[in-house]
Amino acid sequence: MAVGFVRPARPDDAGEIARIQLATWRVAYRRVLPKHVLDEIDEAFLALRWTDAVTAPPTGRHRVLVAVEQNAVEQAVQEYVVGFAASGPFDDGALAADEDHTPERENVAAVTDMLVEPRWGRRGHGSRLLAASVDLWRGDGFDSAVCWAFDADAATRKFLTSAGWAPDGATRALDVDDLLVPQLRLHTTL
């Protein structure tokens, strides 16, 4: 029987987080981002960045969580990290191109990444990651949250809107090797 749960990421999770991130991007975003860009991303570099995020977050309100699937097989328990979520206080990375950073956003959490590896999808891991994040955000004094999603990423938009998130009207385009990739920002009240 499989059991899913969420826990804070540990330093030894960084390599698996990087692998999940890269594998998910290459599957979920293969029609959104240029193939050669996805092929050139260095997994070891991502792992170092995730190690830093886990071991030396910029503030105590920055979090990296992992979703774990646990299976009991012949009297042994196997655990697999299957997804992750990273968030922190609203900062310049959460801004649209035409916005200024204002003090009234200091109680807004910003999701920087939330991914579940596609082969582990549809098992509740994304919902558990989101619920655990919301609990931590409330405990950290946040009263709302934002998350950017690619316009072409219908799955993420559907997941977030089904959980009560809605577009807030902000848009931007990421410049990925001279290709502008449009995004929209969603928000929710906690």
UniProtKB/TrEMBL annotation:
Assigned keywords, A-Z: Acyltransferase, Transferase
Domain N-acetyltransferase: 4-190
Organism domain of life: Bacteria
Gene3D superfamilies: 3.40.630.30
SUPFAM superfamilies cross-referenced by the UniProt entry: Acyl-CoA N-acyltransferases (Nat)
Pfam (any one): Acetyltransf_1
GO molecular function, one term: acyltransferase activity, transferring groups other than amino-acyl groups
Descriptive protein name: N-acetyltransferase
Species of origin: Catellatospora methionotrophica
Organism taxonomic ancestry: Bacteria, Bacillati, Actinomycetota, Actinomycetes, Micromonosporales
